[in-house]
Amino acid sequence: MKTLKQHKKVTKKQASSTELGRGGRKITLKRRAEVPTLSGRSKVVEIDEPTLEQLSKTETSVPREVAPVEQPVERQPYDGNTAFNLYLREVGQTKLLTPQEEVDLAKRIKKGDKKAREQMIKANLRLVVKIAREYEDYGMPLLDLINEGNMGLMKAVERFDPAKGAKLSTYSAWWIKQSIKRALANQSKTIRLPVHVVDKLFHMRQASVKLQEVLGREPTDEELGDELGFSAQKVAQLRTAAIRPASLEAPLGDDETSRIADVVRDETADTPYEQLEEKTNTSMLRELVATLDPREAEILRYRFGLDGDPERTLEEVGQKFGVTRERIRQIQNVALNKLRKQIEKLETVKAAA
């Protein structure tokens, strides 16, 4: 890379750095020099000698133009929440319709204008979001509620008649709510709830929230009944209907290795201990339990209440012994298998005798 010193061309005329001018004053002499520019061309400038000497001692490199480095664009993974937020932003930016625009679009829709139908639907999507949020606590994801509400909005747009004097927002709200209520009534319930029951549950929830703000606590069935005009028994029935059934195969909490069935007792089935007890008497079974490892014996006694105590769940036994319920299950199964083998040996001996 060439330097400013190498490019410098000074004229042949030499002069001292200072000379006496008229009146005896000192004046600084300047020299003409060619210096390079960033464009690569030289330029003649006048530089006083002290500055020129200073530049001569400094190796100042002429910078080169550097092409900008294009940074790679990192592709972001798909995020459902981000896509949903973008949808909400787009819906919020859509221009609302004036009453006259609603009338004009409705006339065009009656003639089969698809663009007018699409414009009217887009202008009312924010109404669907607003109504869908009112039903968030009924077990259906908000996005599904919005999709169902959009179906109701489409029906409303197709049936809207401004000549009847109703506003589109008022007319659409009814269709949107009906569509959402039907979806809630049909969503994966063991017993399908009629739409009118879902509607009563919705109003009961609203009344419950209102009373909580006034009373500062959860309202009783009697208080809810007075607010809604129902009997306390009717409120209790609605509460029962609002309970959603859960699958016994569903994971229990964050532990995906355990199921709800693991902690729910089947009242119609015998426990493993009762199955063993059918094959032998209680006293003999207790003697066999005493032959087990002390920890295994203690767990069986605590689990099945062999000492006259009530039976405990795997979770309760695990908390007592400081291990997980899965570990208690493993120890229990090992101990029961040992007991079965001992009982089979006793039965074999009895049969041989």
TrEMBL record:
The keyword Protein transport does not apply. It holds the Pfam family Sigma70_r2. Residues 1-33 are annotated as: Disordered. Residues 313-339 form the RNA polymerase sigma-70 domain. Gene3D superfamilies: RNA Polymerase Primary Sigma Factor (1.10.601.10), Winged helix-like DNA-binding domain superfamily/Winged helix DNA-binding domain (1.10.10.10). Transmembrane segments: none annotated. Residues 1-12 have a biased composition (Basic residues). Keywords: DNA-binding, Sigma factor, Transcription, Transcription regulation. PROSITE patterns: SIGMA70_2 (PS00716). GO terms for molecular function: DNA binding; sigma factor activity. The keyword NADP does not apply. One of its GO terms (biological process) is DNA-templated transcription initiation. NCBIfam families: sigma70-ECF. This is RNA polymerase, sigma 70 subunit, RpoD subfamily. It comes from Pedosphaera parvula (strain Ellin514).
